[in-house]
Amino acid sequence: xxxxxxxxxxxxxxxxxxxxxxxxxxxxxxxxxxxxxxxxxxxxxxxxxxxxxxxxxxxxxxxxxxxxxxxxxxxxxxxxxxxxxxxxxxxxxxxxxxxxxxxxxxxxxxxxxxxxxxxxxxxxxxxxxxxxxxxxxxxxxxxxxxxxxxxxxxxx
Length: 156
Description:
A hairpin with a 2-residue loop joins strand 1 and strand 2. The N and C termini lie far apart (85 Å). With 156 residues, this protein is α+β, with helices and mostly antiparallel strands. The protein has helices at 6-25, 115-122, 148-154, and strands at 34-39, 42-48, 56-60, 68-75, 78-79, 83-88, 94-100, 111-114, 127-133, 136-147.
């Protein structure tokens, strides 16, 4: 029967633990809040909030007026409670808002808005879509929305 040195066994265990710690320290996007924005069945943005703090820009046009904009926000894998979306103008004033019912346990329903309603509220101005929930009361700007009218005026 072979005997092993207890000091060698402890050193080996520490080495394996150190290697595992280093490997998992560089695993991207573990945990944290995430959101996804879709137009109809096309995903426009998928973002890990704590990894990428930038605010992306999307363009909505009259040709997509009959579509639905869907937002799924995950708080570390959990759907928020008392969820709402709002459009804010450049003065940070809410110009349109939507409130959503709490989700049943185990479900992950999207928050949906008619693009037609967004275009009507934006009235050709650049707006921000912000998310608020019980878990995120200070709100989070998800995306800047530019309508085709704003895009045309920006290019002049």
